[in-house]
């Protein structure tokens, strides 16, 4: 038989060491692909874990904010529950003050009435003060637009500009919140 006619032998049989190396290479590349897949899955899991951790922190912060808001709402509800009731009582004080301003203080016959009305008004103001209602009487003070409502502006050389010269109706606060502004007259510089 000529060399050309010889049956060709498989390459594997000719070089057994190369065959083992190829098997090792195939096995290594298979292990490397498994490791690469595992590393990819690990990175994906770590990313999901980080996302879940961030989501948990956001939910926890939102729950804390909701708890804080609810607590503030309850506190405000307790603090200002009497706002409408107190506002409805203010005309009573106004009427007592008007009665005192119209009574002739010189007449001895009205001395007992004056004393009774003054004691009633003092008792009333002390009682509402226990619940946080405070009277605002700004006569002679600088005008404060957050607490006063200017009803008139008059030139005056006696007091500094923007000073409350007279009070038409006293204002009131409930626990630091304005219940009703004081209606006042304000001075301005003379022309």
From TrEMBL:
Alphabetical UniProt keywords: Chaperone, Coiled coil, Cytoplasm, Stress response
Location(s), subcellular: Cytoplasm
Domain of life of the organism encoding this protein: Bacteria
Entry-linked InterPro entries: GrpE (IPR000740), GrpE_CC (IPR013805), GrpE_head (IPR009012)
Coiled-coil blocks: 28-69
SUPFAM superfamilies on file: Coiled-coil domain of nucleotide exchange factor GrpE, Head domain of nucleotide exchange factor GrpE
CDD domains: GrpE
Region listing for Disordered, in residue ranges: 1-26
Biological role stated in the UniProt entry: Participates actively in the response to hyperosmotic and heat shock by preventing the aggregation of stress-denatured proteins, in association with DnaK and GrpE. It is the nucleotide exchange factor for DnaK and may function as a thermosensor. Unfolded proteins bind initially to DnaJ; upon interaction with the DnaJ-bound protein, DnaK hydrolyzes its bound ATP, resulting in the formation of a stable complex. GrpE releases ADP from DnaK; ATP binding to DnaK triggers the release of the substrate protein, thus completing the reaction cycle.
PANTHER family named among the record's database cross-references: GRPE PROTEIN (PTHR21237), GRPE PROTEIN HOMOLOG, MITOCHONDRIAL (PTHR21237:SF23)
The family this protein is said to belong to: Belongs to the GrpE family.
Subunit: Homodimer.
Full protein name: Protein GrpE
Organism the protein comes from: Alishewanella longhuensis
């Amino acid at each position: 038989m000529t060399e050309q006619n010889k049956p060709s032998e498989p390459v594997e049989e000719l070089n057994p060491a190369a065959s083992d190396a190829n098997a090792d290479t195939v096995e290594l590349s298979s292990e490397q692909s498994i490791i690469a897949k595992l590393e990819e899955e690990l990175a994906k899991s770590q990313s999901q874990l980080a996302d879940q951790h961030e989501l948990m922190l956001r939910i926890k912060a939102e729950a804390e904010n909701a708890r804080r808001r609810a607590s503030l709402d309850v506190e405000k509800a307790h603090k200002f529950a009497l706002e409408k009731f107190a506002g409805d009582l203010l005309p009573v004080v106004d009427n007592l003050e008007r009665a005192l301003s119209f009574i002739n203080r010189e007449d001895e016959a009205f001395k007992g009435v004056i004393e009774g009305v003054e004691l009633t008004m003092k008792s009333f103001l002390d009682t509402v003060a226990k619940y946080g209602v405070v009277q605002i009487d700004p006569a002679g003070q600088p005008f404060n637009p957050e607490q006063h409502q200017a009803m008139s502006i008059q030139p005056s050389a006696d007091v500094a500009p923007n000073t409350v010269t007279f009070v038409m109706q006293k204002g009131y606060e409930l626990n630091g919140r304005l219940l009703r502004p004081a209606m006042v007259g304000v001075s301005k510089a003379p022309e």
